[in-house]
Amino acid sequence: MKTASIQVAGVLDASEADAAAVSSAAMSRGLELQCLGRLELRRDGEVLPLPRSRKTRALLGYLALTDRRYSRDRLVSLFWSVPDDPRGALRWSLSKLRVALDEPDRRRVLADRDTVALDLSDADVDVIRLRDLVDAGLGDVKTETLLAAVEAFEGELFAGLDLPDSHEFQFWLVSARESAAGIRAKLDRELLRRFADDPACGLPHARALVDFDPYDQEAQGALISALWRMGETARAEAQYRQILRELEQEGIDAAALRNAWNDRNARRIIAASPAASDAPEAASRAGPAEVVGVAEPPAAEEAASILRRPAVAVLPFDDMSGDPDKAYFADGITEEIITALSQWRWFPVIARTSTFAYRGRNLPVEDVGRQLGARYVVQGSVRRAGARVRVVAQLIDAESGLSIWGQRYDREISDIFELQDDIATQIVVEIEPEVARAERKRAERRKPESLDVWDLNLRALASIDRGGPRDLQRALETLDRSLEIEPHSSYTHALRAYALYNRSLINWTDDPVSAAGRVMDAARQAVELDDKNWLGHALLGISTMWRLRDYDGASAAEERALALNPTAPLAHQFLGCVRNFDGRPAEALPHLASSLKLNPGPSSATLLLADMSLSHLLVGDLDQSVTYARRAISRYWGNTRAWERLAAALGLQGRTAEAAEAFQQIVGRGGMPGPEYFTTTYPFRTDEHRDRLLGGLSEAGLTL
């Protein structure tokens, strides 16, 4: 079976090799890893045997594609569901990978006592090469290169390597397959554009795009147009009728598809074809919206300009109690949601005076969105029964009419205003990331050359969320492009500070003070451009503490961020962190607990629980400190900061054997920490708190 890498290699010239990150010579020899289809390994064109163990091959694919160093504990938790000896299972798999990958003069499996990585820096990994090709822009890439790249997608990513019992890996695999399919779609979209005047060549790429997203009306229109122009009018009309029916059944506005149906090129061919006499009848059956030359009303054009940014409209929640005297509760929740959403500031929220005009009007959500200029609509209902209340909310794409998210909240009624605030907060913290995800998908579908600042920022944010070193570097490069277009964008500078902050966490012990300085510079630019940018203030506060040890300035910045956006988990987390080191750990706990409630995901929970452990340790509640440290470790075994707090708390309790065992986890990960480590990464304002932590660690085995 020919490999994807060899197929692409055959058509690359030297200039294109730079865009694809490899040269044709490099791909025709050396080490190659084929991830598309069945996982295969080649050296100098010869297929190498891979371990029979599916988990071992999945481990190889995961390490190759993520391209970063992992703790052994992380890999154990990802692939093995606690057998008798999970670390032994990992060692066995690594020994098999060494046989397959290592060379006499080069080790490619880089493993020490605590961490594992692969060195594939000079190898050809097909998915990474194709991703880099797309990310570099396809405008100057030769058409034959694009065709060969499409052929590389012979099968799904890592075919046959599903691990249903390894839930976290399986979740990653599904996401990685979606990303690979997205790469293929971008290649097909570019080829479809190039073959605009050659329907026979464009047809397979239109079909591929329709397979990727059946509701992509632009792709459906291209497929129908290609069929018409090839003289296959019956198939074109059948395709049109079928997808139109499906869109209508799903409640999706089919305006884009209707426009494609009336495409002038298609109509010219129809007029010249033997089937031309059927065209008027088909047009009349399709309805008035298909009449050529009918312009959209001016109001729709104005709304379209607004829709370039994702405005959100919150409609009045329906009161289902039937008692007009109780409608105030539903109105109160609606107003709380409008206020809280507006504080995020990265998308506009339609004012209450506009949305409440739609109370009791049973209009299609698409019409509401068009009239208000909103891309997303939030609507819901409230039902009270005795001492309980049920609130149902949903987020709807106003262009398609599809529901993006929905949730039900059941609560006991005690304090009515506290209940309104609680439910509104929960709705907002779930809606905001859903809007962000929907917008990122839109940005990913746009051609690189047509991206504006908004799209670039969304792509950068998606890279930040993925969180790997290469992802964060790509995010910074994307944000630099955004700043070239609009250098005075406060939001872009804040995202740049956020990317720098996340990059500093990966190499936390290298030089946190200098890293914090870079975050601080970007955050300061953000707040100078917009003093109401809550994210800029939050990042300015945390970096000010790390860089300058200016606790009062850091507290003021975090308090400002929280005043601007009380529902931002990051602002609560940073303020809690500042309070811990500022000598006010009791004040830190409510903010850390709020952040955990607002963002309970495992990656954030392990950090927050470890910080809560530190708070309890500093206030003298050692039992709670131990409990929270262990909860943090249960979320992520490799959380060194949680192990430090656990060892210190156990040491202060006199449980020296347990403390020593916990401390060995710290030493095993990075060696014996020295005085500089604690001075740099535990910037306590008071000597009392510093001595308390170090005293507990000394009981556990720390020597300074």
TrEMBL record:
InterPro entries: AfsR-DnrI-RedD_regulator, BTAD, TPR-like_helical_dom_sf, WH-like_DNA-bd_sf. SMART domains: BTAD (SM01043). Gene3D superfamilies: Tetratricopeptide repeat domain (1.25.40.10), TolB, N-terminal domain (3.40.50.10070), Winged helix-like DNA-binding domain superfamily/Winged helix DNA-binding domain (1.10.10.10). It holds the Pfam family BTAD. It comes from the Bacteria. Residues 125-258 form the Bacterial transcriptional activator domain. PANTHER family: TRANSCRIPTIONAL REGULATOR REDD-RELATED. This is Bacterial transcriptional activator domain-containing protein. It comes from Minwuia thermotolerans.
